[in-house]
Each structure stands twice: as structure tokens, then as C-alpha cells.
Amino acid sequence: MFFVFINFILIFFWLNLYFFLFTNTILRLVFYYIFNIMLIFIIFLNLFYNKSIYWYQYILTFYKQLFFNIDFTWGFDVLSLNLILLSSFLLVICFLCYWSLKYKSVFYYFLLSFSLWILINVFSSLDFFNFFIFFELIIIPMFLLIGIWGSRNRKITASYQLLVYTLFGSIFVFISIFDVLLSKGNLSFDFFLNTYFLDSRKFIIWILLFLGFSVKIPITPLHLWLPEAHVEAPTPGSVILAGILLKLGTYAIFRFLLGSFTIICYDLIFIILIIILFSLIQSSIVALCQIDIKKIIAYASVSHMNYSLIGLFSLSFLGAAGSYVMTFSHALASSALFLGIGVLYDRYKTRLIFYYGGLVMFMPIFAIIYFVFILSNIGFPGTFNFIGEFLLTYGALNFSFVIALITTFSLILSLMYSLLLYNRLFFGFIKEFFIRLYTDITRVEFIFLLIFLLLIFFYGVFPNYIFNNIYYFIYKIKFFIV
Fold first, then answer.
1. How far is residue 215's CA from residue 209's CA, in Å, rounded to a whole number?
2. Other CB atoms within 10 Å distance of the CB of residue 100
3. What is the distance of C-alpha 180 from the center of its chain?
4. Which helix (H) or strand (E) segment is 58 a member of?
5. Three state DSSP letters for 234-261
6. Which of 55, 75, 330, 405 sits 20 to 30 Å CA-CA off 149?
7. How confident is residue 48, by pLDDT bands cut at 50, 70 and 90?
8. What is the rounded distance in angstroms from the CA atom of residue 242 to the CA atom of residue 265?
């Protein structure tokens, strides 16, 4: 009933949106209450979720079999519920940080609510076909957000680059779906977990799915769309990209590759780890060479997402638990870093790092808060990222000492580019020719950043609140049942 209620409210509101004779102020308030009602419903759904049951709950199924014998089924488990909660929280933040938007504001609010509807469906779908539709549909609001509210002239190029790369990956996923549907006649998640494929067919399906999901993570060399999209996107677009969109690839790998094609994962594990380690080191080194602040954080996101994949393929319970934690800790830390960059861009209209310097002199509060976000990004003890990185490194050490050594080297690179970024922004001499607005963060900006600050410290000091769900996340993966 909860799922039907959410879809009904959102679709009904969209259909009647342009028939309401509302001013922008009233319409903004309507959207504000809709987003908050959705967030409150999802919080209550998490509170009343029965954590003693590791399988799906609140299942809604339409056995209509309208075409191709496809059943439309939705349901929630621990992972999908937490990702829906994360998505709704970040979208509320994106809505509030552009509260005073004047240019096409109604369309902007519509795109955010449309994104929330897509994400609720993609994380709750229990059928591969239904999942694939919403998995690709999320590109539409991102394409429009970057193309309309982007910051520079290259925004159209960046939005089309995002579209082309994701459509390229979706071709492989669509071929694998079509092959399974024609050969087996069913695309439900339960079917994928329990069916048998011939080794040759299973290998081809696995390769196609891995290529398709690698674009969303992203893995080198399929990552080139992400830095461009981050640089050209507005601040809410960067938050959605880093906090939600990059999690879709990891979520899909967990759902399909690790759970359904376990043997192929065992056979190809060293090839997979070599690709992931190369992507991890390459993105960390490239982040050291960037002069655009957003590109530094974008390549850091690529590095952290590949780092989380090492935990999934480390054949270790702790490694997979670290990947689970890293999914949420990276979303909070990277979103907070992009919000901080948005604060600077709103004042000085540039993201080139050599224009900045000495900000600590007149932005002390922002300097302290952003330093905490930098510490979280490097996995400092007491922050949320530290829990995930510790478990990931320990899981990699149990699997291979060489892999653990390479991942530790990537952590050193992460420390280097993060502290270099902070040092060049906040210390040194003030560039008087470029920085002429001497003011600290406003009250609204302080509240946004304080929310992320409290969440990072809360889960870093009390990780048992996230650990309570890890067992049920790992139990569904056959990959660790040797």
C-alpha cells in the first residue's frame, strides 16, 4: 500500500501540475511538503521493517503478464530501503539548496520529484525488465539538469556525453535481458537466483552485464563522462550524481552478478580485481593533476567507488560489509564536498583552484566544517568513511597481501590530493584580484553543512546502527558461501 500511495500521489500531482493556478511561491511550498512527506513515510517504513527476515517485504505484484510473460513486482529489503532513504534525503537537500531559484523553477522541482519516483522504483523493482526501464530512465532528469542549469558553455556537451556513455552501456544490458527472456521466459530476481544457465551462455551474460553496469560505477576507461558531468552540473546535479547515480552500478552488481552468477565471479575474480585496481590507482593519480575543484572530487568519487568494489570481490564477509558501509559513507562525504564547492562557486563564480587562497582568514566556520569533510573523505578515525575503509582493507588483506598493499597506496594518494585541495583553498595568500567578497557562510548554508557533519560523526562514532543491517545484506549473496 505504501508503494501504491507514493506512485499515486506523485503521478496525480504531475498530471495536474500546470492546471493549478499557483504562484511559484505556493508551488514551491507544495513541492516542499511532498518531499518531506515522502521522506517521513520512508523513515517510518525503515522503522517498521522486520529485520529478522532477510528476504523481501511489502511485496506488490501484478500477475497480468501483459507482454513477453513479464510480471511487474515490487518489494523492499534492507539494502533497497536504505538506498531509498538515502535518495529521498539527498533530494530534499537538493530541493532546499535551490530554494530561491528563479529560472524555470517549476520545471526544476518537477525534475527532482520525477527523479525521486524513478529511484523508488529502481530500488524496489523485483523484476529485471522493470529494473532496467527505471535504471535507464534516471538519465533523463540528469540530462536535463545538466543541460538547463549547468554553469558553463560546455554543459550541452557534458549532458550528451552522459547520455551517449550510458546508452552505450545499456545496449549490453538490454542484449543480456533479451537473451534470458527468450531462452528462459522469466526475468524475476528469484528466477535469476535459482535458475541454471549453460556455462558458455552464463559467461556471455556476465560479461555483458558487467560492461553495462561498469558505466554507472564507473570503471576506467568508461568513466570519462563523470568528470565532465560533475564540472558542468549545478550543485544539486553533482549531489545526485555522486550520492545516488553512482550507487546504481554497485547495487546492480550485487543484485545480479554476485548473487546469480557466482561461479563466473570466482573464475574471473583476478581479472576483475586487476581492472578495478587499475581504475582505482589511475583515478587517484589523475585527481592529483587537476586544477578544477569539482574534477578533483569527481575523480575521488571514481576512486572510492572502485575501492568499494574491491570489498565485494574480496571473498570476505568483512570486505563485503565494508563495501556496504562505503556505499552510504561515500554518498554523505562526496555530497557534502560538492555542496561546499557550490558555496564557493555561488560567491566567486569560478572553480579553478589557483584563483583561491587564504579563505580561512574570512571564512573560519566554513574552513572548519570543510576540513571535517576532507577528513571524512580520507577515512580519518571517528568519521563514517573510516568504518568502511577499515573493513575494506581488512577484507582485501585476507584475500591477498598484494591487493591490500595497492589499496593502501591508493589511500595515500587520496590523502595527498585531499589535503592539497584543502591547503590551496584555505591557506596561503588571499588573491585580492579574484576574491573580493569577504563573508562567511550564511545561516541556511550552515544548516545544510551541519546536517552532513552530524551524520558523518554519528555513524562514525556509533557504527552499530548501520551494522545491524549488514548481516541481512551479506546473507543474500551466495558469493561468500564456499
1. 10
2. 8
3. 28
4. strand 57-62
5. CHHHHHHHHHHHHHHHHHHHHHHHHHHC
6. 330
7. confident
8. 26
The span from the CA of 383 to the CA of 454, in Å, is: 10
pLDDT in tens, 409-422: 888 888 899 999 99
Q: Do the Cβ atoms of 413 and 419 come closer than 8 Å?
A: no
Dist. CA 201–CA 451, nearest whole Å:
48
| Residue 136: alpha-carbon gap to chain centroid | 15
Using a 10 angstrom Cβ sphere, with 0-12 exposed, 13-18 middle and 19 or more buried, the burial of residue 194 is exposed
Torsions phi, psi for 356 (to 5 deg): -105, 165
- Exposed (0-12), middle (13-18) or buried (19+): which is 323, by Cβ within 10 Å? buried
pLDDT at 7: 59
Residue 171's CB: how many other CB atoms inside 10 A?
Answer: 12
Task: Please check whether residue 6 lies inside any domain of the structure.
Answer: no
Rounded Cα distance, 158 and 230, in Å: 9
Q: Is residue 133 part of a domain?
A: no
Domain-embedded: residue 295: yes
Q: Which residues contact 211 (CB under 8 A, 6 or more apart)?
A: 169, 172, 222
Task: Tell me how far apart the terminal alpha carbons of the chain are, to the nearest angstrom.
Answer: 39
d(CA 237, CA 318): 32
Cα 10 to chain centroid, rounded: 23
Give the amino acid at 401.
F
Distance CA 345, CA 40 (A): 32
Condensed to tens digits (0 to 9), the pLDDT of residues 368-422 reads 999 999 999 888 888 888 988 888 888 888 888 888 888 888 888 888 999 999 9
Domain count, the chain: 1
Cell, residue 360? 580561512
Whole-prediction pTM value? 0.89
What separation in angstroms does the CA of 452 have from each of 140, 236, 429?
27, 15, 29
Of all residues in the chain, what percent are helix, strand and coil, respectively (each to 5)?
A: 75, 5, 20
C-alpha triplet 255, 48, 385: angle, nearest 5°: 55
Compute the chain's Rg from CA coordinates: 22
Instruction: Tell whether 288 is covered by a domain.
Output: yes
**In the predicted structure, residue 24 carries a pLDDT above the cut 70:** no
Domain containing 368 equals: 276-482
Distance from C-alpha of 260 to C-alpha of 254, rounded to nearest angstrom? 9
